[in-house]
Every structure is written in C-alpha cells, then in structure tokens.
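Researcher: Please translate sequence to structure tokens.
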Amino acid sequence: MKKIIDKMFKGMRLLTAALLTCGALLFSICVQPAHAAVGDLVYSITFSANCESGVGVGIAFDGANLWYSCAEYGTEQSKLDLFRADPITGVVTASYNIVPNGGLGALSYDATRNALWAGSGLGGPGGGGEVYRIDMDSAKNVVGSALVFDVDSIVGNCSLDDGLAFDAKDIANPTDDVIYYSNDCMTTTIWAFDLAGNSVESFLWGGSTCIINGFTTGYNSGLAVGGQLLYEGSNGCSHVWVVDKATKAFSFGFSTVVAGDPNFRDEDLECDTSTFSALGKHVMWSKEAYSPMRAHAFEIEFGSCGVGGVPPITEGRMTGGGSVFTVDGMRVTHGFELHCDASQGPNNLEVNWGKGNNFHLENLTSAFCSDDLAISPKPPAADFDTYQGSGTGRYNGVSGATAKWTFTDAGEPGKNDMIKLTITDGSGSTVLAVSNSLNNGNHQAHQE
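Model: Translation complete:
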C-alpha cells in the first residue's frame, strides 16, 4: 500500500508541476486547465521511446500503465514491438518483442484475464488478420503470448489492424466476451468476434466523411468499449463517434483536433478512469501513428466507460468513515454513505478538519464504482472496491463548495483502506487536500 500511496503523491506532484508549464520537447507532458465538457483535451503525452520503424498505432490502459505498440520491428538489433509506460511521465518502464520478425497493431486490455489483446502489425507472419493474447502477471509484466486466431478470411487481407476493443459484456459469463475489430484498409465496417475467432456480427461504422486538402476521406480508425457504449475513431477526420453497441444508435461525439499538434490523427483508442480521477475526470486516450510516439487524452462523460472492457458498476454502495492525516500532520475525519448510482439515495458525506472546518455534502453530482485489480479485499463483500465521486455542498455553512474523492475498501480491518479527497470553496480555492490510508476507521463496499 505504501508503494501505491507514494505513486499517487508522485503523480499529483507531476500533475501540479505540469499545470505550470507545457513543453514541446522530445519527452514532454502537457496538462490542460480543468474543464467539464466532453471532448475537452485533458492531457498530452510523448513517450520516451519511439518505434524504430516510425509507425505505431496501438494503445491500451491496464488501470495503472499505458501500453503502446510498434507496427514493425525495425532493424535486426531492435525488434521491440510492445512498450509499457507511465501515463503521467511517458517514461517507458518495460519493452518486449511479441511477434518475431513482425509487429503489432491495435491493443486492448482485458481486465477479466489480466491480458492484452493485440491485432496484427505490418510485418506479421500471416500478412494480416492475426489476433494475439498477451498474458501478464499481477505486476503487469508480460509472462507469455500466443496467436489465438486469424480473421483474414473474414475481413479481407489487410496488413495492419488499427481498431480493436475487448468487451466483457456480462462479467459473470466469460463465454459471451467479444472483440470488436477493424483494419487499416479504409474500412467502414466493424466486426465483432468471439474469443475463438468466430464472427458474431458486423455493422457499419457510425462516422461520416470529411474533406482534407480537397480530398474526401472518412473511415474507422480506433475502437474502445466499456459498458453500453462503443467509441469509434476516424482516420483523418479528427472525430470520435459514440454509439450504443446494441442498437448502433448514435449517442454523442467529439472533436479530437489538437491545436498544438496539427498533424495528429486518431488511431487506436482506450478508456482510462484512473489517471485523472483526482481531477474528477475520465478520459479517452487517442494514439498518433507516426513518430514521435504520442497520445492525447480527451474528457468523456464520467462513468460512461470501464477499464479493461468491464462495464461501469451501477449497483451497490459504500459506507464508512474514520480518520486520516494530511502530509503536514493535520487530522481529518470523515463519514459517508454513497451509492454507485448517483440518482439513488441516500447519499451523505461529512468531513471535519483543523479548527472547526467542515464540509457537508448537499448534492452528489457524479459516482463511479470499479474493481481495482491491485486491491484484494478479504473477504470481498461486493464486486467493486473503489468509489470515485464528486459533489457540491456547504463549507463552514456556506453553500457552493465542491468535493472530489476516491475511497477504497481493501478489506478488514480497514488499515489499508484509502481516501483521496480535495475540497474547494465557492471561489475555487482549495481548502483541503488529503491522500493517505486510514489511521482509524473502515470503508465497506456493499453489494445490492
């Protein structure tokens, strides 16, 4: 738990520093000012290692790390096609050669199996259509990989896959899992395959054409799913269309134009509900194909996506309270009952600190319950262990204050339960920021 806390503090320090400056360096990060609109640019990152071939389309998020792929292996001396990186700094922390003499395309994290699914790169052994499973251990190190199936005979020969999304659907039934798939050969068709490679369905991309430099273009590039929504990118049109995965009805969309990166175009997509949760934001990562290897994070509706193909959890509640200390030793006490569905009540949060300071929640504005694979409560009382939320209320009796928090339940007796909480007053000034494990007390997730 200490390592988790240290990482959280490190991430917040980096986020704070990045708010002060954005650099255009080979290795750079840039955080945009806080917004509250779908499609707003939240973060920009350049990874510390490029693909030697200069082409890499895949991106995935495993709840803690970003992963990106290289479509070709480069020279005989450098056959790396898969990289793990810190989502805040972009520093590569591990690299692998998965396909000998080949490369990888789009990526998607599977939280059910703690594995990455990967499409074919430009140098694969079968010429395109291959889908690989890459297994990891609990520390997110690659421990094995295998070619699971080949869809070339169904989707047509295409050497590069730039859209792939794993969907757990009903998490209680692993036999219904599917992989959404699209290739890079100007396709407007999206396929869904079961994990044996059998076609489940195919349907038209929900996007539309655009005109770039006098030429009409527009086809799918990039897929992501979590819950009921399917996110569909566009290669060249700088736009993401979001549809209901069952009915295919349009839900919403947003632009991915980045003012400081005019050559950016969407390739692979992946949902991230963790990295910017301290800011009260969930994001969709979009990967650029060409060097320098980089990605941008765009805000999506809070709770509209789940990591690893797992749908957002809307049933259940978390209760508890206790005391925690800030970094300068100030004691903070709290008590709460909060539902995973913000529309369900009662929802209460009370926080006290310092010399008589108090926050009282009046309105729960967002709620998101999830299962963090790094947390293993014993016994597990519910199918989630992490509660992210935000709301408005009274600070020292004055309405207009805002609170954003993450509470975790790491099992009994509660000493490893975490609280990460920020409270701002009506003017937007931060009056309390605390992130630590409980000194006394307990958080309890409840199944309903």
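Researcher: Any highlights?
Model: The two ends are 28 Å apart (CA to CA).
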